[in-house]
Design brief:
358 residues, alpha/beta, 15 helices, 55% helix
Length: 358
């Protein structure tokens, strides 16, 4: 039995962190679903930038859309929605079989709106309506300003993938926004069955510290942060507040482990997969990580509810001079800036290709 199937049977969803038109046209995504237990997909501006820049498969559609008067963000979202609706159709049987727990794809609002809650909600609602797929998440950054946008989007019935989370406190803020949105729906007589995931970024922790700590601590911080957030996630699900919402028909905002491709060339290429196995969670993997885990990954069991060593690891990093709380805040700020840069690169690439194809 493949390691991916073992992980799936343990109760963790495997999502692909990639989308290209070639993946769809070649049948590769369908093969990943059938052979590697892939049950969902995520995207971001960097992924689309790479796909459009390094491929000719979008050229004819870009030429047609330019001829129809589209440009910039409008043209990009047209391309993205085309790809993601096709992917959503492939995952629809999983979505239906799991009573809408799994089988999701994700589309991000413009990263330039990360600090504008009102504009984020307007765009989230418009994109979800445009795609017209029940199994499409709209990705909203979990910044401080993103909290009200997440709450309002959930209240409006938009399924949300909360992205750019780095710490357990970031996760708890996302859970607070999600539950507040659901409570408002219950108070308004609406169904609280609006789905969400909270995406915790893992590998950037180790990338930021690998050259600043002793070798014994190298590549340990990301897993510890993931385990700490998982403990917080389980506490939320066991809280009286969540149990009241569940009694009204709400379903869990699942914790999603994101950025799980190994950045350290000295470390295992599947470092963040088996070590973050846990039921009722998601691990979204870059394509190369998915393939590597399918070939030689191992699953020794789930993150323990008690006995995980994340507290000792975080204490050790404190002793060697790493301010984990400050680093988490810095990583979120840098992540938002990186997404901004990728978004601008993406729009520049689309503009350049549009001019060349006229």
């Amino acid at each position: 039995m493949r390691a991916t199937e073992i992980l799936h049977n343990l109760g963790q969803s495997i999502w692909l962190d990639n989308i290209t038109r070639e993946l769809l046209d070649s049948g590769t995504l369908k093969r990943y679903i059938d052979d590697l237990s892939v049950s969902g997909l995520t995207s971001n501006p960097t992924i689309f930038d790479h796909a459009i820049t390094h491929s000719k498969s979008y050229d004819s559609e870009i030429r047609r859309l330019v001829g129809a008067g589209l440009s910039g963000e409008a043209l990009f979202f047209e391309l993205a929605v085309q790809d993601l609706t096709r992917a959503a159709e492939l995952f629809t049987p999983i979505h239906e079989r799991t009573a809408s727990v799994d089988g999701w794809v994700s589309l991000e609002v413009s990263p330039l709106l990360a600090y504008d809650a009102k504009a984020t909600v307007v765009e989230a609602k418009a994109l979800h309506k445009k795609a017209n797929r029940r199994n499409l998440f709209i990705k909203i950054p979990g910044t401080k300003e993103g909290g009200p946008a997440i709450e309002d989007a959930v209240f409006s019935g938009v399924p949300v993938n909360v992205t750019l989370l780095f710490t357990s406190d970031h996760y708890l803020a996302a859970a607070e926004a999600y539950m507040s949105g659901l409570e408002r729906r219950v108070a308004a007589g609406l169904s609280p069955d609006v789905r969400s995931v909270a995406s915790l970024f893992i590998s950037r922790w180790d990338k930021a510290t690998m050259d600043k700590v002793p070798d014994r601590d190298r590549d340990r911080l990301g897993v510890a942060i993931g385990q700490q957030a998982y403990a917080a996630y389980r506490d939320v699900l066991e809280s009286d507040r969540w149990q009241r919402l569940a009694n009204c028909g709400a379903r869990a905002q699942r914790l999603l482990f994101a950025s799980t491709g190994t950045k350290d060339p000295k470390a295992s290429d599947v470092l963040y997969i088996g070590s973050l196995a846990a039921p009722n969670t998601v691990n979204t993997m870059p394509e190369e990580t998915l393939l590597a885990f399918g070939e030689h990954g191992r699953v020794s069991g789930a993150i323990p509810r008690a006995g995980a060593d994340w507290e000792q690891v975080l204490a050790e990093f404190g002793r060697v001079g790493v301010d984990v709380a400050k680093l988490g805040a810095d990583l979120q700020t840098e992540g938002a800036r990186s997404f901004d840069d990728s978004w601008k690169d993406l729009l520049n690439a689309i503009e350049a290709k549009s001019k060349a194809l006229k």
